[in-house]
UniProtKB/TrEMBL annotation:
Spans through the membrane: 47-70, 105-125, 154-179, 191-219, 231-251, 257-275
Protein location: Cell membrane
An example Gene Ontology CC term for this record: plasma membrane
Region called Disordered, residue ranges: 293-313
InterPro entries from the UniProt entry: Virul_fac_BrkB (IPR017039)
Biased composition (Basic residues): 304-313
Major location category of this protein: membrane
Superkingdom, taxonomy of origin: Bacteria
Mode of membrane association: Multi-pass membrane protein
Organism: Kineosphaera limosa NBRC 100340
Keywords: Cell membrane, Membrane, Transmembrane, Transmembrane helix
Name recorded for this polypeptide: Putative ribonuclease
Amino acid sequence: METQEQQRGQRLLDRARARSRPLDRVVRAVAHYREREGSTLAAAVTYYAFLSFFPVLALAFAAVGFISAYMPHARTELVEGLQLLLPGMIGTGPGQLSLATLEAAAGPVAGIGSLAVLYSGLSWITSMRSALQSMFDTPKADQPGLVRAYARDFVMLVVIGVVLVVSVGLAGIVTAASWRIGDALGLGEGLTWLITGSSVALGIVANVVLFVAMFRLLGEPQFSDVAVRRGALLGALGFEALKQASTWLLASTSSQPAFQAFGIALILLVWIYYFSRVVMFAAAWVATSEQTHPEQTHPGQLTPRHRSTLPGK
């Protein structure tokens, strides 16, 4: 039973929501996130993502090894792009991977990684689809046969992986090229703020593409394109903040005993979990995009603008 303080706090919140649309928007998204147990869904996705990360990373590194071997002039851009995506993993220091190592092991790594992806990568796709459809309240459709299901999930894994690597990697390469052009023109530190801002903007654009792809291909939301794009933009901002924070986190924890014992895997696990939470909250934002403002109904009630198409509604 609610106490008088809780009831009073709820009334104050309802009045504040009635006066402020942005506040009401946030409250509805948070409520949906909690009702669908977004943190639990994110933890389940993290489990499979952590397992699938290494074979997917193996394939990506094999591709980088092939590209670096046949396009030596692109090595600097490749390293800088990978550092943006995976801070601290590429380099010549202890526990890091060098491009020479990737070039030498590209063939065997590609074969082993391809086999491992069939198990762990497909499990991540399945868990992410289930989590997003739960957040979106997507109507259950007839499931395809086992072979068709694996083929569909493999295509989705390839598409999502390509979008991730291309979008984020392209942003890193463009940023690195901008620095080199600035140095060649003698601009020096004068345009540091401009190049930094441009790289962040490119990263956000790349993230939006990634989130839209995940939402549409995996979640199959029954919402408008505008709602999906707005949720993708919110997720993109959160993802970019995580990427920027990861560099600081690696620098601040590199001397800690826990980091020395578990290495990058510890940071990676935490990073994947919070990325998954960002995805789930962005999905909750999309799912609550077509609800009315409380001033149109009774404060505290959340009523859809359109009649639900779900069975039994």
